[in-house]
């Protein structure tokens, strides 16, 4: 285990300090959809995070899984509502976020995914919901404060190889 920048690494993989997901996504041109997404993220975040991080070493990673591509958002449209929702929950202000990464997976397209993607296994095989968003929060200072008490977020594994996805299986 080592530290590089704000990220803690175990066997070469960054370890998030918090992780949670919602079966929701912000909707384009819908204030009600935006508010519902923000509320869902805040509720899930409050269930995982006891108090906002106060340091400036916050990094946020978003995994967006959809099986409704016509309704899917572009990855750039996930930024503002996600960062707004996490304000006061994961951190005090989004100015503390120094990195923001988003990955979108369209389950209607054949493909194979590999790497550190443990939680996406749950979302990948969930056909009950058309959209899901998983949030990871990284912060070396919070990890140090917790001194390992938080463990890994639920569903997080260092390396997972998913079988190829074939729509309609």
List keywords for this structure.
4 helices; 169 residues; four-stranded mixed sheet; 60s Ribosomal Protein L30, Chain: A; single chain; disordered N terminus; alpha+beta; three-stranded antiparallel sheet
Question: How would you describe this protein?
Answer:
The chain has helices at 31-48, 79-86, 118-124, 140-146, and strands at 2-4, 7-10, 13-14, 18-22, 58-66, 97-106, 114-115, 131-138, 160-161. It is an alpha+beta fold and 169 residues long. It has a single domain (2-159), classed as 2-Layer Sandwich (60s Ribosomal Protein L30, Chain: A), CATH 3.30.1330.70. The longest helix is centred in the first third of the chain and has 18 residues, at 31-48. The radius of gyration is 16 Å and the shape is globular. It starts with a strand and ends in an 8-residue tail after the last strand. Residues 1-12 and 157-165 have low confidence and may be disordered.
What is the mean predicted local confidence, pLDDT?
76
Reading the helices and strands in chain order gives: EEEEHEHEEHEHE
| Helix and strand composition category | alpha+beta
Unreliable stretches: 1-12, 157-165
Q: Which CATH architecture would you pick?
A: 2-Layer Sandwich
Helix content: 10-25%
Beta content: 25-35%
What Rg, in angstroms, do the CA atoms define? Answer: 16 Å
| Major pleated sheet | 4 strands, mixed
Oligomer: single chain
Which of globular, elongated, flat, extended, rod-shaped describes the shape? globular
- Tell me the domain tally: 1
What is the spatial order of strands in the main beta sheet? 4-8-5-6
């Amino acid at each position: 285990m080592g530290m590089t920048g704000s990220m803690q690494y175990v066997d070469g993989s960054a370890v998030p300090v918090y992780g949670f997901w919602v079966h929701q996504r912000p909707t384009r041109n819908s204030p009600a959809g935006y508010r519902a997404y923000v509320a869902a993220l805040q509720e899930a975040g409050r269930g995982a995070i006891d108090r906002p991080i106060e340091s400036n070493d916050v990094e946020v990673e978003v995994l967006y899984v959809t099986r409704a591509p016509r309704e899917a958002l572009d990855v750039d449209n996930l930024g503002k509502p996600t960062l707004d929702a996490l304000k006061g929950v994961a951190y005090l202000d989004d100015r503390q976020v120094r990195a923001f990464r988003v990955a979108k997976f369209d389950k209607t397209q054949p493909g194979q995914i590999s790497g550190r993607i443990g939680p996406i296994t749950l979302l990948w095989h969930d056909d009950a919901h058309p959209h899901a968003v998983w949030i990871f929060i990284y912060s070396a200072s919070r990890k140090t404060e917790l001194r390992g008490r938080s463990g890994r977020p639920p569903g997080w594994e260092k390396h997972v190889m998913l079988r190829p996805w074939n729509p309609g299986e």
